Amino acid sequence: MRKYWRLWAKSLGEKEGTTDREADIIAIIRSVIVLVNFVTCFFIISGVIHQW
Fold first, then answer.
1. Full-model pTM
2. What is the CA radius of gyration of the chain?
3. In Å, how far from its chain's centre is CA 23?
4. How far apart are CA 4 and CA 37, in angstroms?
């Protein structure tokens, strides 16, 4: 599981923070932002399909 977390965190961008714990927290915040973006896009697309 650590391997996948490491890959996901790297895919979000450059490692930030002075410690690994701080870098993990920053990666979690970035993950939340990406998740909110996906959910928003899903609702926009579903609204367009519904009105079509």
1. 0.82
2. 15
3. 14
4. 21
Indicate the burial class of 23 (C-beta count within 10 angstroms; 0-12, 13-18, 19 or more): middle
Distance CA 30, CA 11 (A): 10
Q: What is the pLDDT of residues 10-51, one digit of tens each?
A: 999 988 889 999 999 999 999 999 999 999 999 999 999 998
Dist. CA 23–CA 44, nearest whole Å: 32
Q: Beta-carbon neighbour count of residue 34 at 10 Å?
A: 13
Q: How many CA atoms lie within 13 A of 41 on its CB side?
A: 6
Query: How many beta carbons lie within 10 A of that of residue 27, not counting itself?
Result: 21
